[in-house]
Write a structure and sequence with these properties.
Layout: H1 7-22, H2 31-58, H3 63-80, H4 86-108, H5 117-126, H6 132-152, H7 168-212, E1 217-222, E2 227-230, H8 232-238, H9 242-245, H10 259-264, E3 274-280, E4 286-297, E5 303-312, H11 314-328, H12 338-355, E6 358-366, H13 369-376, H14 378-394, E7 401-406, E8 409-417, H15 420-433, E9 438-440, E10 443-445, E11 449-456, H16 465-481, E12 487-489, H17 492-511, E13 517-526, E14 532-543, E15 547-549, H18 551-561, H19 564-583, E16 592-597, H20 599-603, H21 607-618, E17 625-630, H22 631-636, H23 638-649, E18 654-660, H24 666-673, E19 678-681, H25 683-686, H26 693-709, E20 712-715, H27 721-729, E21 734-735, H28 746-753, H29 759-762
Helix pairs in contact: 2-3, 2-4, 3-4, 4-5, 4-6, 5-7, 6-7, 13-14, 16-17, 17-18, 19-21
């Protein structure tokens, strides 16, 4: 059986373990604390030298003998100063010296019991070392000194009187027992001190760990703002090492231009806890941080230091700045957006009222920009818009703000405007900047813009960003109506027209769903035999409050708002269904229906699909559908228009150029427009064909041109028999106008188709 496994042995071992756990560990004092205690005990030892010398003389000892008695004590005191001996060696020297003082006192006092109390005092004092070696040395010294001296000279140790024959070692053991009891009491205090220090060290380690490993910058500052300590996070944030920080004041981390201001404000007020301002790093770069400073109070409740926390918020600040930039700038062009424009106008109007100066807004809208987007794609349109914005920005003054209002609309805020002349000159500069061609995908593109100007004088009662923008927008639409590529200054009539336009646009958005739109048809008549060969589908709007609205009023609104695309698709489907019904009745077998296409429709990528769907849905033969496109719509973007016309022609439909003769560059592009099927002579030439020789010459030229190209010529706006007769003589075979029939409902056209000859209308 293993002796170690015996129950008694196990109990003994457990008791020993508990005793070891209870006993002090020793050598737990920090060096600085140990040095202070050692110095105190050394001072106590040196203090005994003169005191014992005087006591020896008072006891009748000669001076020489007294000095000889003090030699061991002085030697121990001297050895106690020798740092090379380490803590244990110096403590041992002081221990022997102090207990030798006790032995000498007992000897000089004749071994009286009162003198022995000095041992207890010295042993208690030596417990201050809290080390086992000097403490055990003290116990051994007391026992050995009492035993040996009791054997050699009992009177120098005990004063028991005559006849006491007890062994001196017994008395040594008795004294050792008392010393041991004192030692146990000291050990309790010693162990308690060790526990307190261990707890404090653990607490200090936790504090330093929390301080050094904290994810935010932390520092301890003195009352003058100088760093006493700094953690790793602060060193990382600032770029300084901890040692470099300890040589700086806290405001050395502030932005250079504000350091004197921050230094003057130190120390911080009691109610200032968290501030946000710039942090300048060692390399000169700037970040942003939240600075928090807390006071630390000393024993007298006065502030003796500060704890500072620095939370780096650079990423958050940059995100906020980016969000603020995005909230006030257009992502495509980088220009200020509508929000920033409105804020700038508010400030400009306030400054203008204060200094008695006017403020102008110039609204800029690119002409036919939708055609660019639809024909070349939105990516090309975006590039063009960026280029346009950059050109316009370069010709504006430093105080003028160019903003993107939305889509292809830009706006300029101009301050210190006394009359419309300055605003018009700025608009002219912008128009001039756009005259040079823009290069897109290797091709030159020409861009024009319409400018609307509104001015708020210092005495205008209706001064607000909203009214200025509204009025400039109205002036811009007026410029569009007057032919585009021009500038218009707002007046009160434009406001009335703008309100009317807004009401019409709002009503037009619901007109299709509420079945307020209808189609009427005007016949096209053969001048040879008087038969109806085609009918033109014309859109009409019956407004519930305004009554019939002229196409001249609502078609431009539909075009500009984009409503013309769904409305045009509806009209195309309706006309095809009606034409299919006419083709199915006697007299209408060969009638062609002509439907107008707007520039917006022509630029739409799905136009061919829309036409194909209308033909399929109605059952109309493609050759019975003629699509009319104005010459100006084609010339706005000839390349895109020609491509679109060829896609339509591939469907088998007929194509007509409406209002021929009033566009520009028509002859130079006509051969590229082939194969068109019809040239419709504009009514402005037909009006004077009888009275004016130049109009007759133009009509003759167009008819002959059409004949030579193998296409039909159709005269529009024929209102008299003289005009019809002359056109017949000029060999124009088809005409259209009030002379033959006004635009009318489909049922009325069906009745006309029953009449094979309309010769009476030709007379």
């Amino acid at each position: 059986m293993d002796p170690a496994s015996h129950p008694v042995a196990g109990a003994v071992r457990a008791s020993a373990d508990r005793l070891r756990a209870w006993l002090p560990h020793g050598s737990s004092l920090p060096d600085e604390v140990w040095r202070r205690r050692h110095a105190g005990l050394l001072a106590l030892l040196w203090a005994h030298v003169p005191a014992l010398f005087v006591f020896a003389l008072a006891s009748g000892v000669s001076t020489g003998h007294a000095l000889l008695e003090l030699v061991p004590i002085v030697s121990c005191a001297a050895v106690g100063h020798a740092e090379r001996l380490g803590r244990s060696g110096r403590a041992a020297a002081v221990t022997i010296g102090l207990l030798t003082c006790s032995a000498l006192l007992v000897h000089l006092w004749g071994g009286t019991i009162e003198a022995h109390f000095h041992y207890f005092v010295m042993v208690a004092a030596l417990a201050a070392y809290e080390e086992w070696f000097p403490y055990l040395l003290a116990f051994g010294y007391v026992v050995l000194q009492h035993g040996l001296m009791g054997m050699m000279e009992p009177g120098s140790v005990y004063a028991h009187g005559e006849g006491d024959e007890r062994s001196p070692w017994l008395w040594a053991a008795v004294n050792g027992g008392f010393i041991a009891a004192l030692g146990i009491a000291s050990m309790v205090t010693w162990r308690a001190n060790e526990d307190v220090r261990a707890h404090m060290r653990a607490s200090e380690r936790r504090f330093h760990s929390a301080f050094d490993d904290a994810p935010i910058g932390m520092a301890l500052l003195d009352r003058d703002g100088r760093f006493l300590d700094a953690n790793r996070s602060l060193a990382r944030q600032s770029g300084y090492s901890r040692e470099e920080l300890l040589s700086l004041h806290v405001w050395a981390l502030c932005e250079a231009k504000l350091r004197e201001e921050h230094a003057a404000r130190w120390p911080p007020a009691a109610d200032v806890r968290v501030l946000e301002y710039a942090l300048e790093r060692k390399d000169g770069s700037l970040g942003w941080a939240l600075w928090s400073v807390s006071r630390m109070h000393g024993a007298d409740d006065a502030v003796d230091s500060y704890v500072m926390q620095i939370l780096d918020v650079t990423d958050r600040r940059r995100a906020e700045e980016q969000l603020a930039y995005q909230a006030h700038h257009d992502p495509l062009t980088g220009l200020p957006n509508r929000t920033q424009l409105s804020e700038r106008l508010t400030d400009a109007l306030a400054r203008g009222a204060e200094h008695r100066r006017g403020v102008a807004v110039i609204f800029v809208d690119l002409d036919n920009f939708k055609v660019i987007n639809d024909s070349l794609g939105h990516e090309a349109g975006d590039r063009l818009l960026r280029d346009v914005s950059e050109r316009l920005r370069r010709v504006l003054g430093p105080g003028d703000l160019l903003a993107r209002f939305g889509g292809d609309e830009l706006a300029v805020c101009v301050e210190q405007v006394d009359d419309e002349g300055r605003a018009l000159r700025i608009a002219d500069r912008m128009a001039t900047a756009l005259r040079a061609p823009f290069v897109l995908d290797g091709e030159q593109r020409f861009v024009t813009a319409s400018f609307g100007i509104a001015i708020a004088g210092p005495d205008d009662v209706d001064r607000s960003p909203e009214t200025l923008l509204r009025d400039a927008d109205a002036a811009m639409y007026r410029a569009k109506e007057r032919g585009k590529a021009r500038s218009e200054v707002f007046d009160t009539t434009m406001r009335r027209r703008a309100v009317e336009r807004l009401e019409l646009e709002s009503g037009l958005r619901e007109a299709l769903a509420r079945e307020q739109l209808r189609i009427v048809y005007q016949p096209e008549v053969s001048l040879e035999h008087g038969r109806i060969v085609a009918v033109e589908a014309l859109l009409r709007w019956e407004h519930p409050q305004l009554g019939p609205v002229s196409p001249a009023r609502f078609i431009p609104i539909a075009e500009q708002s984009g409503l013309i695309v769904p409305i045009g698709a509806w009209a195309l489907h309706e006309a095809c269904r009606q034409a299919a019904r006419w083709n199915a009745q006697p007299g209408g077998e060969e009638v062609v229906v002509a439907v107008n296409l707007s520039p917006r429709q022509l630029g739409a990528s799905d136009l061919a699909a829309t036409v194909r769907g209308a033909l399929a849905g109605s059952g109309l033969s493609p050759e019975r559908l003629c699509l009319e496109i104005t010459e100006s719509a084609v010339m706005a973007d000839p390349d895109a228009a020609i491509e679109s016309l060829h896609r339509l022609k591939a469907l088998g439909v007929k194509l007509a150029i409406d209002d021929f003769g009033v566009g520009y560059s028509s002859l130079s592009h006509l051969r590229e427009l082939l194969p068109v099927d019809v040239l419709k002579i504009d009514r402005s030439f037909i009006d004077g064909v009888v009275r004016r020789g130049e109009d007759k010459a133009i009509v003759t030229a167009i008819v002959e041109l059409a004949r030579s190209l193998g296409v039909d010529a159709v005269a529009e706006g024929v209102e008299t028999a003289e005009q019809a007769s002359l056109l017949h003589e000029l060999r124009c075979h088809v005409a259209q106008g009030f002379h033959f029939a006004r635009p009318q409902a489909a049922a009325d056209v069906a009745q006309l188709l029953d009449v094979h000859q309309l010769g009476e209308l030709l007379g």
